Amino acid sequence: MTFSVWAPSRDRVQVRVDGRDHEMTAGAGGWWHADVPGGEARGTDYAFVLDGSDEALPDPRSAWQPDGVHGPSRVYDHSAFAWTDAAWTGRALPGAIVYELHIGTFTPGGTFDAAVERLDHLVDLGVTHVEVMPVNSFDGTAGWGYDGVLWGAVHEPYGGPDGFKRFVDACHARGLAVLLDVVYNHLGPSGAYLDRFGPYFAGSNDWGPGLNLDGEGADEVRRYVVDNALGWLRDFHVDGLRLDAVHALVDRSAVHLLEQLAVEVDALSAGLARPLTLIAESDLNDPRLVTAREAGGYGLHAQWADDLHHALHVALSGETAGYYPDFEGQLGRTLRGTFLHAGTWSSFRGRRHGRPVDPRLPGYRFLAYLQNHDQVGNRATGDRLSATVPWQRLAVGAAIVLCSPYTPMIFMGEEWAASTPWQFFASFPDPELAEAVRTGRRREFGRHGWGESEVPDPMDPETVRRSTLEWDELAEAGHRELHRVYRELIRLRRSRPELADPGLDRFEVREEGSALVLHRGDLRVVANPGQEAVVDLDVEPGELLLASDGVELVGRAVRLPADSFAVVTPRAASRPR
């Protein structure tokens, strides 16, 4: 077996294979190599010893960590897995319905195999893409996954690398594409050994040490990131990546890491003959991320659009604290422009923020959502919209998102107004680190008026249990009805192409009091998250394609009860010829 590791600043490197140390030879570019005879490749445990240290460290490029992030790495053979998805040709993002889930709380089992048992629910709902929160190795058993430290090794408690492959294979068998959330902007606080090997780190951000992307030795660090991304897409057959908080990637290079990544992913996509998607999360409100490279952008395929969430959240909940004040009464404007803050004043930041979206950009490049893991889990108690908003009003929000020109995304359980919260949790074995996270969380929300006893203990296993979906709710009143609305809205979007039309330059939004009228080709989508209203349609209505109970057509108008919506088609004679 041949072992290699990049350790440019070390004078001596050994590889410990099944408990025995072997000298490695320094090669070009700071790489060390060793050929170790004997043994079976798959299943062999190994670690690296630097400069005669007593400590053996896992491989920075490990593919398997069966004993956790502090234990040895284990050799993994990607070619040994028996894939059944040879006929899979992928799914492009235009027209997609994305569903975000967390493996550990999607089912009581909390594993990949347990999640497979619920995939048919997603197919029946009409989902096309499953976005899986990070599955890289992190310290402990339970966590969100954003404190990963070995990015290429699948978290063993979920089922390890073979378990993830079984999940992807099962998704493909059902026509579901898989998007994987990856974190390249920082490393977690426990098990981040990269800096022992070389100049991986450069400064830090709010979450931990950041990567050296433009300093001495940065070429190999960038290669580390890009190779990791390509590995998920190639070796695990993943169809795309969601790139966490790219605004925290500090890179002053002429070719930004994101552009480099987009170029290499596009090349891999051509080689595999299936679409591969890169979706960024960014708080910069900068459409250059998803602008084509030939037009001066980075060439990513899509990005999350938090301004759309914020405007929807305020309209549905009435909440105007924190970063929400600017969005009061701004739902129509935000839907039209994608970003509310587009070179305009942000009271939360105390400065101008963002850049306008060129309406020639297709709307599918922006993900729209009522909820996601951040916007729920980063609340003090992890309360969902369903904790305070009636299901009928949630259906109005769903109609706006699912009939918009943007790519809709659903957070797990949202489709039936899950009563379970989704709270912040972790399980660091180090008691000092665990206490620091616990007290830090409570101190953060204490500054906003929350008492310590009100903020859930992130280290308590009960917090994980509370955050786990209760699937029996699907059969209960209210939950059952909202689930039906989601299914019917998705089916309508897929049967009427004008509802999925991504043309922002053809998208018109008209406000009539508390109601909105979305012009979607000939169709009119009327959403009323307020009191009863009568809304002029500008056309003579023909029929209600889908509507809340109590909606009526009245001449050229529609009468909507409080918290209701309607999708209306005009009479054939009134359509322009």
From TrEMBL:
SUPFAM superfamilies xrefs: (Trans)glycosidases, E set domains
Cross-referenced InterPro entries: DUF3459 (IPR022567), GH (IPR017853), GH13_cat_dom (IPR006047), Ig-like_fold (IPR013783), Ig_E-set (IPR014756), Trehalose_TreZ (IPR012768), Trehalose_TreZ_E-set_sf (IPR044901)
Pathway annotation: Glycan biosynthesis; trehalose biosynthesis
The Glycosyl hydrolase family 13 catalytic domain, residue ranges: 100-443
Keyword Cytoplasm on entry: yes
Chief localization: cytoplasm
Pfam families for this protein: Alpha-amylase, DUF3459
Keyword set, alphabetical order: Carbohydrate metabolism, Cytoplasm, Glycosidase, Hydrolase
Catalyses which reaction(s): hydrolysis of (1->4)-alpha-D-glucosidic linkage in 4-alpha-D-[(1->4)-alpha-D-glucanosyl]n trehalose to yield trehalose and (1->4)-alpha-D-glucan
Localization: Cytoplasm
Superkingdom classification of source: Bacteria
EC number(s) given by UniProt: 3.2.1.141
Family recorded in the similarity comment: Belongs to the glycosyl hydrolase 13 family.
Full protein name: Malto-oligosyltrehalose trehalohydrolase
Species of origin: Saccharothrix yanglingensis
